Amino acid sequence: MENQDTSRREFLLTGLMTTMATVGCSEKKNPFLPEKAVVLSGEKVKLLSVDGEIIEVDKAFLKPVPELPPVSIDESRKGIAGKKFVMVIDLARCKNLKYCQSSCNHMHQVHSSQNWMKIYEMQDSDNTAPYWQPTNCMHCDEPPCVKVCPVDATFKREDGIVLIDNVRCVGCRFCMAACPYSSRVFNWEPSDFKVEGEIKPYSPETSVPQKVGTVGKCDFCPDRHREGKLPYCVEACPNGVFFFGDMNEDVVTNGAETFRFSELIKDKAGYRLMEDLGTKPRVYYLPPVNRNFPFENGLENENVADKKKTSK
Amino acid sequence: MNRMKNNIHLTALLFILFTVPFIALAQKESVKNNVVLNLGYYMSNNRVMYLMANAKTKVEGKFKPANGITMRLFLGNDSSQNLIGKVITDQHGLAKAIIPPALKNKWNGSFKHSFLAISEANKQYESATAEASITKSKIYIDTVSDGVTRSVMAKVSSFDGIKWMPAAGVEMKIGISRAGGGILSVGEKETYTTDSTGTVTAEFNKKGLPGDEHGLFMIVAKVDENEFYGNLLVEKLVPWGVVVKPDNSFFDQRTLWSTRFKTPFWLLFMAYSIVIGVWGTIVYLIMQIIKIKKLGMENNVV
Amino acid sequence: MENSTSITSEQISLDLLPKKFGKRGMIWTGILVLICLVGMVGYYRQLRYGMVVTSMRDYVSWGIYISNFVFFVAISLVGSLITAIFRLANVKWATPLTRIAEIIAVSAIVFASLIIIVDMGRPERFLNLFLHGRIQSPIMWDVIVITTYFCISLLLLYFPLLPDLKILIKFKEKSSNALQKLYCFQGSFWKGTKAQYKISEKAINILCITIIPVAFSIHTVTSWLFATTYRPGWDSTNFGAYFISGAFLVGAGGVVVAMYIFRKYYNLEKYILEDHFEKMGKVVVLLALLYLYFNINEYMVPAFKMKKSEEAHLLELFTGDFAIMFWFAQIVGLIIPIFVLLFKKGRKPLPMFIIGIMVVVGAWFKRYLIVTPTLLNPFLPMQEVPASYHYYFPSWEEWAIAMGSLAGALLVITFFVRIYPIIPIQETITEQHEQDEK
């Protein structure tokens, strides 16, 4: 390689770069095994380095990764190895903007009268404070919906995500009766969503295209995760309400801020919905204290959204 | 007379009915949407340099990614020998190009560069341009340990045409790279800024943070949208994490929510014993019918 | 007894042989066929346009189809009650009623499975239940138990029919050639020998024992479709017993109605006696009291506590949108029958017939009340959905399909009566002989 002559001090090789290591840096001395790195494609690309040198790099390093084809149904039943996905929803930050909802509906081609992500106007009792509660699928660890599915159409993956295979689903709707969080919707008629561009083949990870006569719900966007991105709702929220991450890494992020999951839950007294049912959700909530917005701000958004809906 | 009037109304109505859609259609064709382009320079690990262009358009007062936009990217001005590449935005409105080896001489010719993106007009969108300029820079990361505390040191240097100089006042994140692109700060602060020597040191206080099965995780120093240097990233694997063995014991259980291949044994036992018991009886009874039939046939012979 | 003067076997056979439809029979059949056809049109529309033609939406995701399914399963339980339990308990007077009960059971269970397929969003994937069946799911338990119950009920219908088939074959001139072929295919081998009787008797005894746990299972498992969820109104440990007692009640009511109609239409006054009504009346009142007990249990205990999740549901039933239906089902379907049947005059054929209809209709609405109001009271508030998601009233397609399935079940019974003797001939003759000997 051309950059052999460059001094090594200046060329701090890092984990990723060890795979392209020069002769001088033998792998045995390096404790950082390259197995953490990207799977090599074997295809080399010539490019210009910042020093003005021409170097060869494996194509796999050129992030962002080119769009992956949707994962096969068998693959999406297994899940992403070594992950335990988790979501934290900070109720103190939500003002019912519904950007999460529209982004989710759009990307999952949800029927216009339905939502996978619902923002509930909650008030637990007469004298307690009202708050906005975004609710999606809880991806429970003891999922009541999966328990009752007669054909393995909805299933729990090793990364914690509960998905639906709408090629298998018979449409019995038992899962909808079983889910205490009302997070499942049924495709009563063909989706009225107009797909722009090419129609991709179906994968339970993308949940699209939707199929009439089958059940749908929030899928935690595992396809996005394979691309190294956050779920659509997390990305769409301008107030950073949603934090998403891997419990095995003990970190959640909303894109802008990143916290240690265990500390965040401890410091802000995180909780889960309907703990008494024993469903063990993978979605945690942070209580609506020290709010960023007064509750009433959300009401304005509620009205705007309602107007939009009626005008349609 | 009245009838005549009615007819006129009717014709007018028909005229409007027929022409309005055409006018609307024509308007749709003539009014194109504006595209807003953004161009960014990215450099990771002092090796790979690339440009990322982002195209957005305003739909109903909200910005949405514009996909399928063809644009050309140039180093310097828009002459053909400066062409970096021709790219098309994807569904997230993003397009990426690496700087090709052919531009080596041009790149080496200066320590400051500007980039230009020009999008082509198409049926939907007007043409648009975006610019970005940078000073050549490098970013380093290293670890320092005094036996008690661990720290991460990051350094940014910029090229002044002759030599690499420390770059002061560069804001960056120093943290642990995590799933979904999150960077968990190694220390207390959200961001760190380089001092006059171009360096910044952050103490590592994330004790007990899980790493991979070897206890490794990636620390990164990341500069976002710096006005002089663009976007810089450098990574380093460190063995500072707690060893986490992949544990699928929860998932591998035989439970009521497992797949049909992992049905709990007690349930299988119950189901099969009931089914075999009852259906055994049914089969026995059907055999009894056959027996009765045989008896009947024998009687016939007799 | 009124018919203590003995009737000859010949006369019994002639009285009980299936008869051709009269004018009224033709009209009845025609109406049933028509209702079925309308139901099929409804189902065609559902297949064509999707389940959006129903009024079910995300909250009320189970509607009239499922309540109809529960109704069918409930009424089918009577087969086991009249035939098996009475037989094992040596209750002789019920013999003429066994076949009525069995055919109600078979036709109801057939339409229970059909209505479940109608309720599926993807009926063409029905086979997935067998290809990818998951034994953890109560639906699979239901699939298994219903097929089993269907088979056992068919056998229980068939074994006692064998001697009658012989009689049917003997009276050739009374039936058409096609029917004769059917009879011969089904029972020409029955010669009535001692050995054959012995096997048959034993088989019927085994069947009677087997059918009881299976019958209990079908309705218990059906109740578990609800009780295995968390929903208020369904989350009850009592549900199996509650459903079974209700099922026996509606089944007995159904048998009473059928008894009355067959007796009237085929002039079977000599075989279905007033005494039968008297005794069935006592059975019905006993079952009604039992069901009343379970009802009090099911509504009183949660109402005493008024847990937040249960409160809205219970108030909706007691005083809210479903109050009229709820009190109708309780009063007309349960309390009035109890009061009427406690009196001897109430157990005469005509009042019994009316009470039977009240019980069956009340029971149908009761099933509706078990399914729908619960779904309208989810744990999280009903928000962010179109207004039509907030309530449920079945669309005409749903009514058509549900009524079509009821008509279909009646049609099966009607055709059965046309082909086979509805009162077991041979058994009646045997009993007559036994009485004469006394």
Question: How would you explain this protein's 3D organization?
Answer:
The complex is a heterotrimer of chains A (312), B (302) and C (438). In chain A, a hairpin with a 4-residue loop joins strand 11 and strand 12. In chain A, the strands form 5 sheets. Chain A has a 5-stranded mixed β-sheet. Chain A is of the alpha+beta class and 312 residues long. Helix content of chain A is 21%, strand content 16%. Chain A is globular, with a radius of gyration of 23 Å. Chain B has 302 residues and is α+β, with helices and mostly antiparallel strands. Chain B is 24% helix and 39% strand. Chain B is built from 3 helices and 17 strands. In chain B, strand 2 and strand 3 form a beta hairpin. Chain B is elongated. Chain C has 17 helices and no strands. The chains are: A alpha+beta (312), B alpha+beta (302), C mainly alpha (438). Chains A and B meet through helix 1, strand 1, strand 2, strand 10 and strand 11 of A and strand 2, strand 6, helix 2, strand 9 and strand 13 of B.
Task: Draw up the topology in text.
The complex is a heterotrimer of chains A (312), B (302) and C (438).
Chain A: H1 15-18, E1 44-48, E2 54-58, H2 73-78, E3 85-90, H3 99-108, E4 118-122, E5 131-135, H4 144-148, E6 154-156, E7 162-164, H5 174-178, E8 185-186, E9 215-216, H6 222-226, H7 232-236, E10 242-246, E11 251-253, E12 258-260, H8 261-267, E13 283-286, H9 295-311
Parallel strand pairs in A: 3-13
Antiparallel strand pairs in A: 1-2, 3-10, 4-5, 6-7, 8-9, 10-11, 11-12
Chain B: H1 2-30, E1 35-44, E2 48-59, E3 62-65, E4 70-75, E5 83-88, E6 94-98, H2 104-108, E7 112-119, E8 128-135, E9 137-145, E10 150-159, E11 164-166, E12 171-177, E13 183-185, E14 192-193, E15 199-203, E16 217-226, E17 230-238, H3 265-301
Parallel strand pairs in B: 1-17
Antiparallel strand pairs in B: 1-2, 2-3, 2-6, 4-5, 4-7, 7-8, 9-10, 10-11, 10-15, 12-13, 12-14, 12-16, 16-17
Chain C: H1 9-16, H2 23-49, H3 64-76, H4 78-88, H5 98-119, H6 128-131, H7 138-158, H8 161-170, H9 177-187, H10 194-227, H11 239-265, H12 274-305, H13 308-318, H14 323-341, H15 349-375, H16 396-419, H17 425-437
Helix pairs in contact in C: 1-17, 2-16, 3-5, 3-10, 3-11, 3-15, 4-5, 4-10, 4-11, 5-7, 5-16, 7-10, 8-9, 10-11, 11-12, 11-15, 12-14, 13-14, 14-15
